[in-house]
């Protein structure tokens, strides 16, 4: 009786081990590569002007020439139809301050040169939205950091890969661009710079 019970227990353990092994192999087949695999590539946004979470040079601020910095990106996902770039300051006293909105950036683009013209449309079809002026969305194009005296502010450059262009006219606000992007974002990347006076 004792031996029969032992046999049944051993058989049950073997069956459970085999079933667990099959389940694990099936899960591996389903999920593919591990997310943290060295082969995995993610979209990345960088600038030769400053590193992530480091100071933005004065030439790209209101205390300098106020020119946009060079931006570069890599590894956009397959199916990308356009890019959108939004730069804002979440530390502004009056609330998030919008410094730059650019959309309809061609899917073939891998960056933006320094000194992007402050015009509603660029030669490659890129459109620029409205950003904050003194008290309203009265400016178009890049307007760099210009914080009040005090602790440095953070400036977030966020790049979005979309499956299609947003389909908006030039001078659209950040809110309108974000609304048009809903359901169409394939990937995003962020570069944060700081600046204080």
Task: Write a short abstract of this structure.
The protein is of the alpha+beta class and 197 residues long. It folds into two domains: 1-40; 44-195, PEBP-like (Phosphatidylethanolamine-binding Protein).
Give your account of this protein's structure.
The chain is α+β, with helices and mostly antiparallel strands. It folds into 2 domains: 1-40; 44-195, PEBP-like (Phosphatidylethanolamine-binding Protein, Alpha-Beta Complex). It is 19% helix and 28% strand. The protein has helices spanning 2-31, 174-181, and strands at residues 44-46, 54-55, 71-74, 82-89, 97-106, 111-112, 127-128, 130-131, 139-140, 153-162, 185-195. The strands form 3 sheets. A 6-stranded mixed sheet has the order 2-11-10-4-5-7, with helices on one face. Strand 4 and strand 5 (97-106) form a beta hairpin. It is globular and about 45 Å long. The N and C termini lie far apart (85 Å). Mean pLDDT is 85; it is low at 9-40.
């Amino acid at each position: 009786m004792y031996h029969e019970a032992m046999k049944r227990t051993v058989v049950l353990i073997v069956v459970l081990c085999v079933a667990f092994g099959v389940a694990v192999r099936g899960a591996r087949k389903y999920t593919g590569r591990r997310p943290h695999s060295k082969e995995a590539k993610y979209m990345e946004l960088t600038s030769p002007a400053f590193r992530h979470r480091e100071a933005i040079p004065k030439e790209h601020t209101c205390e300098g020439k106020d020119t946009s910095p060079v931006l570069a990106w890599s590894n956009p996902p397959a199916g990308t139809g356009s890019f959108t770039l939004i730069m804002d300051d979440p530390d502004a006293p009056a609330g998030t301050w919008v410094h730059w909105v650019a959309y309809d950036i061609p899917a073939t683009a891998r960056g933006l040169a320094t000194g992007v013209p402050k015009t509603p449309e660029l030669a490659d079809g890129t459109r620029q939205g409205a950003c904050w002026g003194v008290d309203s969305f009265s400016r178009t194009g890049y307007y760099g950091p210009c914080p009040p005296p005090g602790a440095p502010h953070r400036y977030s450059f966020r790049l979005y890969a979309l499956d299609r262009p947003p389909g908006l006219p030039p001078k659209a606000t950040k809110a309108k661009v974000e609304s048009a992007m809903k359901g169409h974002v394939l990937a995003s990347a962020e570069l944060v710079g700081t600046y204080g006076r």
